[in-house]
Amino acid sequence: MQHDHVLTAKQFSRADIETVLDRAAALDVRAREASSSEPGRNRSDDGARVGDRHAETLLGLLFFEPSTRTRMSFETAIKRLGGDVVDMGSVESSSVKKGETLADTVRVIEGYADALVLRHPSQGAAKMASEYVDVPVINAGDGAGHHPTQTLLDLYTIRERAGLDDLTIGIMGDLKYGRTVHSLAQALTRFDATQHFVSPESLALPPDVRYDLDEAGASVRSHTDLETILPELDMLYVTRIQRERFPDENEYRAIADAYGIGLETLERAKDDLSIMHPLPRVDEVDPAIDDTDHAAYFEQAHSGIPVRMALLDLLL
Ligand code: NCD
Question: Is 180 in the pocket of ligand 1 (CB under 6 A)?
């Protein structure tokens, strides 16, 4: 895999994706074996370490927006690879508070770290940052733009549950502001997948993403209602309405509860339908689903570790 930076899912070829997922699968098996054969032993001790290839590597974490999974799984991944992090910490406690520009911040931190993981509220921030530094920049979410590393772990889960070809997937919720959706939709064009988008019209895919899908010749359909399409789906990817990106809170409230699923919703679904969600969920997936075989979202979140280990190992 030859990339200087990881900015959007569009940059990944099918071969890139398969390379990352295969390596992640190998790391995942080793991690599982290490934890099951020696109960009580910390997994980071052996099985999951890739021979400490990255013992000197420091990953710079720059999170200008809240994050739990992405931030902690990048930190876990680099530590399992034998490296460590330098973390800018919260915006409140950094010089950003004094008015420092992103361009200056990344130019300083590239002197401390071997790669930068950036989450920022502005769309295009990671691309802009990549133009100022020589170390790899990994986009960990740029506003309502893209989230390509989330996509890699989403694809990992889809591959494990249903396979990436001959796939019928529903993608539901906030398709306008949901960056995980934009990246996932682009990456799925590399496979034989039919994508059914379910959202209110006001939260449909942005025109630029729609354009990319059309240009790639993707098989896509849009719906305002899950009912009609549900029985056909192998996977259903549910997203949170991105409240923080709405210019008008009333607009958010008007659609907030419209796209949730519960056990009763699944009565008409295939028995082996898997439900995914990038998390955090608010109330769009009823916790009653958690204990069913449909729920794939926690395993999806856990796959962030092997997938990000694989990505970092290949990139660095
Ligand atoms: C997502 C994000 O930040 O875009 N979270 C994540 O990284 N797993 C999804 C969301 O916030 O709704």
Answer: yes
